[in-house]
Amino acid sequence: MIFDVASRVWLPVMTMRDELPYPSGWFYLARARELAPGSVLTRRFMDEDVVLYRTRGGRLRAVRPYCPHLGAHLGAGGTVRGENLVCPFHRFAFAPDGTCVGTPDGPPPRTRLEHHTLSEHNGFVFAWYEPEGAPPAWEVPDTAQAGVVPTAAWSTEVHTHPQEIIENTLDYRHLPVLHQVTVRELDPPTAQGPLLGMRLRLGPDRPPALRHRIRADHTFLMAGLGYLRVELPLPSLGLVSYLWAMHTPTGPRRTRMLVATACADLRRPDATGASLPRHGLHRAFARAMLRTAVGKVRQDLRIWNTKRYEPRPRLAANDEGIGLFRHWARQFYPSA
């Protein structure tokens, strides 16, 4: 315990049990369709604001929020003029490389905005974070089919660390208990650098006669602690569905979670070539998948929002996946 002089009360000392540091990796900030040319958005990221904008020429940028002139927030009224981001306070203009290139009065000062490294995949915009400022060491994986973008999405704020959310994927034992979902491991969790993949057969309990004919074989792929993609082929319908779960730290024990879904033709290599009637089917199926997923997430939220992080969990005999996950996750934190 420590004594807080201002409030004159004893407070608990923060330990590893209470907090995990922010992990390195790629984290979702926005959907690409939110950033049309000329738009400016503000997003919360690692307990700081990030200002995203797209130039009139289509270049996407993300900068730290405050103008180096007199500190105005560039997301609170900042505008895009041509290729430049313009401060709302004194109209200082900043080029895509961050350099100050114009002022209303006289030559610009020698200063520049600090940038975040961005990447766009499948209609998502990701930002790279590394506590020491190192450049990206790996890339976000694309889907096998070109042109797949989410058509349905939902988001919420979760009062926990992103590791706690994505670890839930390896916790098979909670599926029948909390979600009434049967699970069978088809391919065990396998780590390859920043990626962790596995394949499970999931579904509600069915009569024995139907278990054979109706299969739901899900392929899971984690990329760091902020990205999860689930692929579900449905050969009988000629479809494949995708579900993404993104977990972005916004502050201590605060994570913004996005769940998004898409659907495409299974046998078509280019998802953009589907006919209009098939596009309607794709959207309807994606919405149905999202409703189902959000229903399960809402059940998880009651646990996530009230649980604590256990740095040394007492694992049961069938918890091998959680042990493997914890070992894999160490790479995303600074070494002690």
Task: Give an account of the 3D structure.
The chain has helices at residues 162-167, 174-179, 208-211, 276-304, 320-329, and strands spanning 2-4, 9-11, 25-31, 40-45, 48-54, 60-63, 79-81, 84-86, 93-94, 100-102, 118-121, 124-129, 152-158, 182-192, 195-203, 217-223, 227-234, 239-251, 254-265. The protein has 336 residues and is an alpha+beta fold. It has 2 domains: 25-129, Rieske [2Fe-2S] iron-sulphur domain (Rieske Iron-sulfur Protein, 3-layer Sandwich), CATH 2.102.10; 152-332, Alpha-Beta Complex (Naphthalene 1,2-dioxygenase Alpha Subunit, Chain A, domain 1). The strands form 5 sheets. A 7-stranded antiparallel β-sheet has the order 13-19-18-17-16-15-14. A hairpin with a 2-residue loop joins strand 7 and strand 8. The longest helix has 29 residues, at 276-304. The chain is globular and about 70 Å long.
Fold topology:
Blueprint lengths: L1 E3 L4 E3 L13 E7 L8 E6 L2 E7 L5 E4 L15 E3 L2 E3 L6 E2 L5 E3 L15 E4 L2 E6 L22 E7 L3 H6 L6 H6 L2 E11 L2 E9 L4 H4 L5 E7 L3 E8 L4 E13 L2 E12 L10 H29 L15 H10 L7
Antiparallel strand pairs: 1-2, 3-12, 4-5, 5-6, 7-8, 8-9, 9-10, 11-12, 13-19, 14-15, 15-16, 16-17, 17-18, 18-19
Mean pLDDT: 89
Low-confidence stretches: 1-17
How much of the polypeptide forms β-strand, as a percent range? 35-45%
Please state the overall shape, judged from the principal axes of the Cα atoms: globular
> What is the total domain count?
2
CATH fold title of the largest domain: Naphthalene 1,2-dioxygenase Alpha Subunit, Chain A, domain 1
CATH class of the largest domain: Alpha Beta
What is the second-level CATH architecture of the largest domain?
Alpha-Beta Complex
Characterize the biggest β-sheet: 7 strands, antiparallel
Number of helices: 5
The CATH superfamily of the largest domain is identified as Naphthalene 1,2-dioxygenase Alpha Subunit, Chain A, domain 1
Helix content: 10-25%
Q: In terms of quaternary structure, what is this?
A: single chain
Keywords: 2Fe-2S, Iron, Iron-sulfur, Lipid degradation, Lipid metabolism, Metal-binding, Oxidoreductase, Steroid metabolism
Subunit structure: Homotrimer. The two-component system 3-ketosteroid-9-alpha-monooxygenase is composed of an oxygenase component KshA and a reductase component KshB.
GO molecular function, one term: monooxygenase activity
Protein name: Rieske-type oxygenase
